[in-house]
Amino acid sequence: YRAPATVRTRYVAYRRGEFEALAKPSDDKVRAFYQEHLADRFTDVEEVRARHILVRVDPDADDDAKAKARTDAEDLLKQLRAGADFDALAKKRSADPGSAAKGGDLGFFPRGHMVPAFDAAAFSLEPGALSDVVETPFGLHIIRVDEKKPGGPRPFEVARGQIEKEGVHAPQERPP
User: Fold this and answer.
1) For residue range 154-169, what is the model confidence (pLDDT) as tens digits?
2) Which of 9, 8, 114 is closest to 51 using CA atoms?
3) Degrees (nearest 5) of the Cα angle 150, 155, 160?
4) Strands 47-56 and 139-149
5) Sheet holding 134-136: strands in order across?
């Protein structure tokens, strides 16, 4: 133990040019990977970006309270169809605390994310269109769709860059 510790090292130089061809997957491998993972990685879901104004109605409310809430919602809808600013009206009148401060903006959401009646109304609208009054367990909604993303498979040329960047790996060969 009296001898000082020694370390031997060897260096091997790898030139990038020598290995780039090996590291880049062939076009056939990239296409095969794309086809294999088309459904689970390269298909976008249909989404909409919507705003809403909520007039809250307790599900156990009596008929008079439900009628008053419907009258309020229909009045809001008339104002909007007459040209009222949706954002301002949502900030002022919506009972949804999560979206009212943002002008009723719910952001993008995929089909099936909201309750069925809301979902059906939102996905049936074209951008810029207003729904009729939509009733859900949360109350009465007026919905405006701002934008739609159609969904479906991404073109191969768009996915190619992502595949090449991440690398083509069979499931058992993925790096840790």
Assistant:
1) 999 989 888 887 776 5
2) 114
3) 135
4) antiparallel
5) 105-110, 47-56, 139-149, 134-136
- The count of other CB atoms within 10 Å of the CB of residue 33 is 22
Token duo for residue 15: 């030139």
Residues 6+ apart with CB under 8 A from 86: 51, 53, 80, 103, 104, 144
pTM for this entry: 0.72
pLDDT tens profile 17-75: 777 766 777 888 889 999 999 998 899 999 999 999 999 998 888 999 999 999 999 99
**CA dist list (Å): 168 to 16, 20, 34, 149, 172:** 19, 14, 9, 28, 12
Q: Encoding tokens for residue 91?
A: 């900030």
Q: Would you say 52 and 94 are in contact if contact means Cβ atoms under 8 Å apart?
A: yes
pLDDT per residue as tens digits for the range 59-107: 888 999 999 999 999 999 999 999 999 999 999 999 999 999 999 999 9
Q: Are 90 and 76 in contact (CB under 8 A)?
A: no
Find tokens 């970006």 and name the residue: 49
Dig out the tokens for 114 from the structure.
Answer: 């909201």
How many Cβ atoms are within 10 Å of 114's Cβ, its own excluded?
Answer: 22
